[in-house]
Amino acid sequence: MNRISWDQYFMSQSHLLALRSTCTRLAVGATIVRDKRIIAGGYNGSIAGGVHCSDEGCYVIDNHCVRTIHAEMNALLQCAKFGVPTEGAEIYVTHFPCLQCCKAIIQSGIKTVYYAVDYKNHPYAIELFEQANVKVEHVEFDNMPNEAKEQEKRAFVTDLIEKLADTMNESEIKRLYNESDKLFS
Ligand SMILES: [Zn+2]
Ligand SMILES: [Zn+2]
């Protein structure tokens, strides 16, 4: 019998959680694990009961969506809410954590970070993880290849269209964006 590894199992959970994201900028999922048990999970979203970016559009200031609580933060706050210790725990995230989440992860006593996708890996975050003796490991996620690569594919196509924008007229560009939307919806 072919059993999936613990790493793939927990990473699958994070990718599943990412599908619940409400911020359209990036769908991220995070799973906190202790002694091979899932103790909390989170995804990119608004405060409970708040409006969703997916309904109202993102609230962007300085190129960041300020409405969203990051997946890692949501998972950690779930532990705070229910009084679950995070000391010595591990976290599985779909994307390399941002600087804010990096600091929260360190401060909560988490000792290992597994991430599936490199995402603007901030040199200071890498430095802080090293300094705090938090192990950071890249785990290639391979159980849902189509879903896992969808965001990268979309980002790549968007990037290509943006590069073409200078050489084409507006209606042609619009048509390309529409076709890409249809393809990825
Ligand atoms: Zn947003
Ligand atoms: Zn973050």
Describe this entry's structure for a reader:
The protein is an alpha/beta fold and 185 residues long. It contains 7 helices and 7 strands. The strands form 2 sheets. Strands 2-1-5-6-7 form a 5-stranded mixed beta sheet, with helices on both faces. α5 links the parallel β6 and β7. The mean pLDDT is 92. The structure holds zinc ion (ZN) (2 copies). One zinc ion binds next to α4.
Characteristic terms for this protein:
alpha/beta, 185 residues, 7 strands, two-stranded antiparallel ribbon, five-stranded mixed β-sheet, binds zinc ion, globular, single chain, 7 helices
The stretches of 5 or more residues where confidence is low (pLDDT under 50) are none
**What radius of gyration results from the CA coordinates?**
18 Å
Q: Structural class, from helix and strand content?
A: alpha/beta
Helix content: 40-55%
What's the number of extended β-strand segments?
A: 7
Overall mean pLDDT score?
Answer: 92
- Small molecules bound in the structure, each named once: zinc ion
Strand content: 15-25%
Order of neighbouring strands in the sheet with most strands: 2-1-5-6-7
Shape: globular
Between the first and last Cα atoms, what is the distance in angstroms? 35 Å
DSSP helical segment count? 7
Largest beta-sheet details:
5 strands, mixed
Cofactor: Zn(2+)
InterPro entries: APOBEC/CMP_deaminase_Zn-bd (IPR016192), CMP_dCMP_dom (IPR002125), Competence_ComEB (IPR013404), Cytidine_deaminase-like (IPR016193), dCMP_deaminase (IPR016473), dCMP_deaminase-rel (IPR015517), Deoxycytidylate_deaminase_dom (IPR035105)
Keywords: Hydrolase, Metal-binding, Zinc
Protein name: ComE operon protein 2
